[in-house]
Design a protein that fits this description.
The protein is mainly alpha-helical and 114 residues long. Helices cover 70% and strands 0% of the residues. It has one domain.
């Protein structure tokens, strides 16, 4: 275990951790919004049930990402316990987005229609 720097409580994060997490979340939100915009508004073809499911999953992921960003911007997130919860929210959002992306790839390939 690393020694605690002078003037820091044992349950506080080192400097820079929150800023890095906030940056990662905002970059991922940007990617996710672009993907949702493309999938929902610009992709060619008719809407199908798998396509609508993919869009719903991706929108759910964006909501989870926004919750993670909101948590990361809270003052209490400088505590290790809260930071770890925020990381779990963010990882959940990433996993949900990857599932949505996988469903969209399957839907776009036309496999469910065969």
């Amino acid at each position: 275990m690393d020694p605690v720097p002078a003037g820091k409580a044992a349950d506080e994060l080192p400097a820079g951790y929150r800023q890095g997490l906030i940056t990662a979340i905002t970059i991922f939100i940007s990617f996710s919004l672009f993907l949702v915009k493309y999938w929902s508004l610009e992709a060619p073809g008719e809407w199908t049930l798998p396509g609508a499911c993919a869009a719903a999953i991706m929108i759910s992921a964006v909501i989870l990402e926004l919750v993670a960003l909101w948590r990361a911007l809270q003052v209490k997130d400088s505590l290790l316990v809260e930071y770890n919860r925020t990381l779990r929210w963010f990882m959940s959002a990433v996993i949900v987005m990857m599932v949505g992306l996988l469903v969209s790839v399957v839907s776009y390939s036309g496999v469910p229609d065969r």
